Amino acid sequence: MAAEHDGCKGCKYIWKEANEEPCASCKCNCTDNYKRQTNIDVFTTMTPPLLAKWLSEITNHERGTAQEWLDWLNEEIEVKDE
Questions:
Q1: CA 75, CA 53: separation in Å to the nearest integer?
Q2: Residues 6+ apart with CB under 8 A from 69
Q3: Which helix (H) or strand (E) holds 41?
């Protein structure tokens, strides 16, 4: 069963360039390459500034501003001894 298609808007590959596969061979409103975007797709394709802005809007954390979140996102991780 093919996924309901609402154009590129809801497509999993919305972040790809038009000349990249599978978009290059997809025609808008075709279902051959179309896959509906999932919630995790949204997060994994966010740019660091966009993710920082989103985090600043939804959290009540000591890192309140988008810039503070962006700084944190760009920090190296702490490696914990096991």
A1: 16
A2: 51, 52, 53, 55, 56, 63
A3: helix 39-44
Quote the pTM value.
0.49
Please name the residue that has the structure tokens 């989103």: 54
Pair of tokens at residue 60 = 């009540």
Residue with tokens 């996102």: 73
Bridge partners for 36 per DSSP: 11
What's the sign of the alpha-carbon dihedral 40, 45, 50, 51? positive
SS3 annotation, 63-81: CCCHHHHHHHHCCCCCCCC
The one-digit pLDDT tens for each residue of the chain (82 residues) are 444 555 677 777 777 777 888 777 776 655 566 667 777 777 788 888 988 888 888 887 778 888 988 898 888 878 787 6
Contact 35, 6 (CB under 8 A): no
